[in-house]
Amino acid sequence: MTRRATGPRPPADLFGNWELGLLVFMALLYAAGAWINPDFFGSSGAFLAVLRDAARYGVMAVGMSFVIVNRDLDLSVGSTAGLVAVGFSMFYAPAIYDLPVWVAALLSVFLGGAIGLLNGVLVTKLKVPAFIATLAMLFIGRGLVLGVTGGKTIGYAGKAQADAFFLMGETNGLGFNNQIFVLLLVGVLGVYALGRTRWGYETYAVGGNALAAEYAGIPADRVRIRGFVLSALAATLAGLMAVAQDKTVTSQVGQGAELIVIAAVIVGGASILGGRGRVLGSCLGAILVVLIDKVLREGVPTVRTVTVGGVEMQIQGMMQLPPGAVPAFLGVILIAAVLIEPLLIRSGLLAGFWATLRGRPPPRVGISDGIAIVGAQTRGTRSSAREVGATWLGRIMARREFAAVALTVVLWVIGAVLRPDFWFSLDNSFNLLLAFTEVALLALGLTFVIANGDIDLSVGAVLAMSGAIAAFLMKEMGVSPPLAAVAAFTAGTLAGVVNGLLATRARLPAFVATLGMFYVARGIGAWLVSGRQLSGFPEGFNLIGRKLIEILIETGIAPAPGTIAYNVAAAVSVQTIVMAVIAVIAAIVLGKTGFGYAVIATGGNQRAAEYAGIDTRRVRFVSLVFSAMCASLAGIVYIAYLRSFNPSAGLLRELDAIASAIIGGASIFGGYGSIAGSLAGAAVITLIRALLSLQLLLPDGTSFVMPQHWVNVFIGLILIFAVLADIWFRQEGLVERIRAALAARRTRER
Amino acid sequence: MSTVPVVEMHGISKTFGAIKALHNVSFRLMPGEIIGLVGDNSAGKSTLMKVMTGAYQRDAGEVLVEGRPEQFRTPHDSRDSGIEMIYQDFALCGNMDIAQNIFLGRWPRRGLFIDRRRMYADAEAVLKRLKVDVNSVFQKVESLSGGRQQSVAIARAISFDPKVVVLDEPTANLSAMATERLLETMLELKQAGVAQVIISHRLTDIFHVGDRVMVLKRGQNVGERQIGDTSEEEVLEMIVKGTPQEEASDI
Fold this sequence. Notes:
The complex is a heterodimer of chains A (750) and B (251).
Chain A lengths: L16 H20 L1 H4 L2 H26 L7 H16 L8 H24 L5 H20 L4 E2 L1 H4 L17 H19 L1 H11 L1 H6 L4 H27 L1 E2 L7 H11 L11 H20 L1 E9 L2 E9 L6 H21 L2 H9 L13 H19 L3 H26 L1 H4 L2 H26 L7 H18 L4 H25 L4 H20 L9 H4 L5 H8 L8 H8 L2 H19 L1 H11 L1 H6 L4 H27 L10 H11 L11 H18 L3 E2 L5 E2 L3 H24 L2 H16 L1
Antiparallel strand pairs in A: 1-2, 3-4, 5-6
Chain B lengths: L6 E10 L2 E11 L4 E5 L6 H9 L6 E6 L2 E3 L4 H6 L2 E4 L11 H5 L6 E2 L2 E2 L1 H15 L15 H13 L5 E5 L7 H16 L3 E5 L3 H7 L2 E6 L2 E7 L5 H10 L4 H5 L1
Parallel strand pairs in B: 3-10, 3-11, 6-9, 9-10
Antiparallel strand pairs in B: 1-2, 1-4, 4-5, 7-8, 11-12
Helix pairs in contact in B: 4-5
């Protein structure tokens, strides 16, 4: 077996031009940083601190590389790291379980591995799209972390002194933190695993063309599950590194890490469409993104020279961003990095430029719609192709909405049984309707997007951004209410335009484009608010958020108190009416017009719709813009009702809205969706939230309320179950399949 | 030449729900023979081949490979028996290079790591055997033209040393020159004793390389001709007007 095959020398596969470019760029960035702010960047200590903090993200990026090269995405790494850190701390802390350190670490690895396995099984065996499964996992994990810790810090510095485990987070004799060693080790392992082993080659094959890989005998499902497990284990290690360094844990560990890690992998040269990427690039990407993150957070002292009346004056200032604003930049970097691939690499722009510089003919441009992309499109169309043949399509459509309506009734009755004294009160009805209005508004727009086969993850963030802009303009700039509302609406619409352009012109998957917008919009919102108390708007503006009865009283046409008309007017607020009007229009457009049919056709089979002459890009663009419009409207209404802007506006609302549409009969793969269904779905979600936060009077006289964090865990679970039920009962016809299998067995027995 | 058919199928039937895709179809392929499978869309050509390779499970009938009855569960089973199928979309990974695609899923290894030198050297050897000209085995498949991509798919197929190669619409996406080259390759494979089935709409291609042509219509066999004894017009008429020869196979 020592035969050394002779032949051509293989090209370099572990290190390429991209990595070289990253190194050069990083050196330039660092030099620029050192020139601008020698205090921060000049010392070797700062350099080592960047590396130390990058180490945790680098480790996660190694795992994420496998997932992204597989053409999957893992949004749950931050939550996994947080959950593991909290889990470890609870197992280890003397005040709680007080287990030996190695037992605690081992349990943590099992916990992390289990999360990865769960992600992998959901995505492969249960066919849930990766971004939905891991997004739900992100929120479930975060809710669990908050719920378990109760927001408190768990510390164990005393016990930690005796354990060698914590050396992992310490500075060693050579003067740098051991976490850098860990990154080096994991990085080298990852570089070789992805670049030179069968595991890695299988990953590239599955990411490039899963169908071809299957034909070639590669178990694609197992390869993808492996990716998720590796990613979760890397996140586990990162979580353990964090606790080894801090020897305490807060509920904040790992928060937002998924953004940095995904950005790092993409900046590192991986393609979000799968099949491309190297671990070394991901590690360098992690260092680069952390460096940028640090620059943004640290603040840069600036000295400007201004000439006033012939005298030069030096003005010293500090450029610093409010902490919430940093994600805005990272989101932009993420999108920019994703765009580099299609715009520069695949179009051959850079290579052509380089060839021209050297006076050579430009190289042949790869076929941009080549094999890799064809593979992706055949995935979703299978289920829709089968459904079209069914003559009882109408009946299915009817049943799709039926589930949501029935659930609404059942949940409402449950509420009435649990707390009859409270459930029927005017207050409760009003609050229910109000919460319903916000979810329903978002769900209306999302119905179009989801029916199109796209997704909009940014609705909650756009809601927050619009609210923040309106509040900021009125409060800080003194802009008149109508103008502020228009400006906020325009900004929200613009976010939708950007989403639409990225998804249709730059051909990014919608979940990536809107994930970027998710961070950008939320960051902008936080930036505008940044610690200010934005409340106390002109009364004219607040009218939008008021109850109908107050307006009627003001105009003097209110019905007498106690009548049904009065009660209805007291429960209904202006925004509910606005929402109802939009809902009616949207229902007509989706159900009765050519545009609505084009939306459904595009979602069902985009290629077929294109052959039929439908401008699918325009349809998808319009839907994404409409979704953002609804979200920004919800944001304006939100601050008008609360009369102040709260930075947590719209948080988790994307989950609520997506779940509403899915429960209401839309399919996550596109091709189905109805406004009536989404409204019923929004009612279900509203009622579930209300029931979960209902104060229960127990027989012994005490009462019980579920903490908010746990409610969020439930909403994440509900989203997963809704998607699973949609895929397995509606699309795959699980019930029919079982019935057919039973019938077949019966005939065989006969 | 041996007189045992390399593949034989009798009375194959296959239904998808209410649709009868294949009804009582028989098929015979001799070693080194090239048979053209023709018919309208939905005539059952691809279905018949997928039943042969085990991608579909037949409802009735039997499949014999070199006289032995076989029950292929998946295309991997039939690959072990020497049957290779080249799919219309080639089933390649565009992001990987030529050698990595030829050895897709069975990359040679040295210990834990992929033996890249051997992989590229072997790929070079396979391509030489096929006499296709690709600039280098390091080229990414997506940067190749349709014809070259197909060459890679064929190289992948013959690297298994198959007895039978099935080509599904091989010339559908090829230029005239690439088609010419493909037909030459097929004749060379025939010289090496590889039996081939070519599913195609282009009768000219089949008449150029084929020994025999088999016509399917609505899932039934409507006739077979030796290429030497027939004309494109006659085959075309069978495709359009042919009636099933059920009586013949029932007796």
